[in-house]
Amino acid sequence: MRWALVKVVLAVTTMVVLAFAVPLGMVTKELARDRAFGNAERQAAAIGPTLSVTTDRAALDRAVASTQAGADGRMAVHIPAPPGRTGAGTLEIGTGRAAEADLATVRRVPRASVAEVAGGSVLLQPTALGTGQIAVVEVFVPEGELTNGPATAWLVLAGVGIALVVGSVAVADRLGVRMVLPAQRLARAAHDLGEGRLGARVPEEGPAELRSAAVAFNSMADQVVRLLANERELAADLSHRLRTPLTVLRLNAASLGEGPAADQTRAAVEQLEREVDTIIRTAREAKPQTTAAGPGAGCDVSEVVRDRMAFWSALAEDEGRTVRSAGVERPVRVPVARPELAAALDALLGNVFRHTPEGTAFAVDVHDGDDAVIVLVSDAGPGITDPEAALTRGNSGARDGSTGLGLDIVRRVAESTGGDVRIGRSVLGGTEVRVRLDLDARRTAPSALRTHRVRRRRGAPA
């Protein structure tokens, strides 16, 4: 489009310049010719009064020399012999260049004429003498006087024409860029969106039609992000609704004792848990890269902790576990969706029930800071021997059939706010998982340096 516009403007401007420059140059040439011969006529007319009074050579020589053309040797006077004087020839004053035939024609038809001679042209001006005869005043006009002015005019017109063409092409190129760049940005954004980069947007600028297309594209991209966000919410809700009851079923199946029926039940629960983990892993890995939550988005971490602790307390009471929570008395908002935070807490509490013996106490503490909220999940179990392996994503070698998705879900939730997850030794003597949720939702997610890239090992909790 850009080069097509430039070519059209180049063709149109060139035709316009030629349409005006050629006639103007021809008019300039005619004006220069008329000016040169007009000047010659005035100089020829200056000799007329002298010729009408006398034909004396000395007087005529002085009259011719007084003119500019005569001083330059470009004027001649042709006076015929007086009637009745035999043997007398034509009186020639100055240097004549015109042919005898041209002089005879002017005498026969007393009218000024122009004749071509070597080096230019001559103006032949007839003048009546007192004797009734016709004298011819010849003024030579060099070719330079006829072409000097027009040549300069042609150069000026050519320069102006070239400047107009170059200027119009430059303006057309800028206009083409103004139209092409928004279209190119729209094409690149559509390509990025098709490849899954959902943050691709188009600046709403350029011509009105392209601005409308940009608005429509941005609206479509926002709708796609909203639809995918709804799908993510459904996936998170699936993890919340299915993993928690499966954990309870797994723990209850462990108390069925021995026997074929008990073994089949435990195997079925493990198979179902693996299938659910596969679904959750697929949903998590397909999570689109969207922008961070805006102001006002998120949930109350205290309310989520109280709700999940109430759920797990019933099972804890059955197993004789001591449960404690702190820092959940007042609202504490974090930039995380409630289903995602609930799924992360369920993963952490499920790990306590999976990997610690019955009767092991655990606690959940919430610390509200100026720029971050810290959630601590502590237990009095045997602890984790290799915290780095526990944070490795998808550790399929974890004990008890763990897929390693639990802490991966927690890490994703923390890093979505710019926070992180750390594992250490708790005051209860066991494991302490520290989840930091940054309150500034505009912070960029941590870089790859913050993500643990270690070799997958066996024995890490889910």
Q: What is the count of β-strands?
A: 12
**Strand order, sheet with most strands:** 2-1-5-4-3
Major β-sheet, in short? 5 strands, antiparallel
Tally of individual helices: 12
Structural class determined from secondary elements:
alpha+beta
Radius of gyration: 53 Å
Helix content: 40-55%
- Give the strand content: 5-15%
In the predicted model, the low-confidence regions spanning at least 5 consecutive residues are 288-296, 394-403, 441-462
Oligomer status: single chain
N/C terminus separation? 57 Å
Mean pLDDT: 78
Could you outline the blueprint of secondary structure elements for this entry?
Layout: H1 2-45, H2 48-53, H3 57-66, H4 68-71, E1 75-79, E2 91-94, H5 100-108, E3 113-117, E4 120-128, E5 134-142, H6 143-194, H7 208-254, H8 260-285, E6 299-300, H9 301-319, E7 323-326, E8 333-334, H10 338-355, E9 362-368, E10 372-379, H11 387-390, H12 405-415, E11 420-425, E12 431-438
Parallel strand pairs: 7-9
Antiparallel strand pairs: 1-2, 1-5, 3-4, 4-5, 6-8, 9-10, 10-12, 11-12
Helix pairs in contact: 1-6, 6-7, 7-8, 7-10, 9-10, 10-12
What tags apply to this protein structure?
462 residues, alpha+beta, five-stranded mixed beta sheet, 12 helices, rod-shaped, disordered C terminus
